[in-house]
Amino acid sequence: MAGRRPKPLAIHQLNGNPRHFSQADLKGDENPAPPIGVPEMPKGLSKAAKREWKRIVPELMSLGVLSVVDGKALASYCEFYALWETARNQYLKEGITFIQHYEDKEGNLIAGDMKPHPCVAIANNAAKTMKSFLIEFGLTPASRSKLKIAKKDDGDAMDQYLKGKKPTGGNNSPLPFTIDPALMEAE
After folding, report:
1. How far is CA 125 from CA 11, 16, 94, 96, 129, in A?
2. DSSP character string of 8-46
3. Packing angle between helix 47-63 and helix 71-94, nearest 10 degrees?
């Protein structure tokens, strides 16, 4: 099938519903809604992948885009991050180019052409794959700018007042609510 693959309707909601799906379509029974939460870290991740997992999971949770079923995709991203880091460290240590040597007919090594270090290509391919995962999770500037994530509710006015927060109500009272004077009559 040619063209872009369809996005889940939840992503359309986060993007502000640019295709103007009806609310019935967006909230229909056929739309999977996996539970929000941290997936279990798969066993066998490399050390660098585990480190990236522990770094990125809190970020994804704060955005509210991580689900318990996202473990495999997240693990794949983390392993490509580890591959990128390893390849990058290798070419930073050895240089981004090398001189390819040839052997002549007598068995002498002759310096040949300058070639890019193979780890440069490995790091570039890993970075492209990482980017595709980051886009899926809404973690690139362009993909993030399309997401419309609801801010956390601070609770009702009384909760705000009890927590010592400035009232957000429209009255001039120091309280986040108004008191009906008729209820204040002396007994």
Report:
1. 26, 32, 19, 15, 6
2. PHHHHHHTT-TT---HHHHT-TTS--PPBSPPPPPTT--
3. 130
Task: Output the pTM of the full model.
Answer: 0.62
Supply 62's token pair.
């704060």
pLDDT tens string, the chain, 187 residues long: the values are 566 655 555 565 566 655 566 655 555 555 566 788 899 999 999 999 999 999 999 988 888 888 889 999 999 999 999 999 999 999 999 999 999 988 988 989 889 899 999 999 999 999 999 999 998 888 887 777 666 555 555 555 556 656 666 555 444 544 444 545 555 454 4
What's at 9, amino acid-wise?
Answer: L
Q: Any long-range contacts for 76-79 (C-beta under 8 Å, 24+ apart)? A: 76/133, 77/52, 77/130, 77/133, 77/134, 77/137, 78/45, 78/49, 78/50, 78/52, 78/53, 79/45, 79/46, 79/49
∠ CA 13-78-37, rounded to 5°: 45
Domain ranges of the chain: 9-95+122-149, 150-180
